[in-house]
Amino acid sequence: MKTIAALQNLVTAASLDGEPSAAELDAIEAEMPLIRAEVELLDAQIMTLDRAPTELDERRIRRARRRVLAARRTLANTTAGEVA
Q1: How does DSSP classify residue 14?
Q2: How far is CA 60 from the centre of its chain?
Q3: Angle formed at CA 55 by CA 51 and CA 57, multiple of 5 degrees
Q4: 41 near 64, Cβ under 8 Å?
Q5: How far is CA 73 from CA 13, 29, 67, 69, 79, in A?
Q6: For 20, which DSSP code?
Q7: Contact 81, 73 (CB under 8 A)
């Protein structure tokens, strides 16, 4: 009977040794505007966790949401253009 650890080493050792491929790095680079927009939205939301949001906070969150939506739209349009 083989142990699970022995089987796991055979399965996972090869997949963890390599670095990201050029295609994976290109995909990450293409998604960076969306990632940055989502981080900005998260930062705006975190600022309002311990206090009531002011009008300025609400505007900041609203702008950040719009940036996320715009980045998602742009990414979806560029991805759809590559597939077609």
Answers
A1: H
A2: 20
A3: 55
A4: yes
A5: 38, 16, 10, 6, 10
A6: P
A7: no
The span from the CA of 42 to the CA of 36, in Å, is: 10
Pull the structure tokens for residue 6. Answer: 């022995």
**61 touches 41 (CB < 8 A):** yes
51-81: per-residue pLDDT in tens? Answer: 999 999 999 999 999 999 999 999 999 977 7
Tokens linked to 51:
């206090």
Q: How do residues 10-59 score in pLDDT, each as one tens digit?
A: 555 555 568 889 999 999 999 999 999 999 999 999 999 999 999 999 99
Side chain identity at residue 9, one-letter code: N
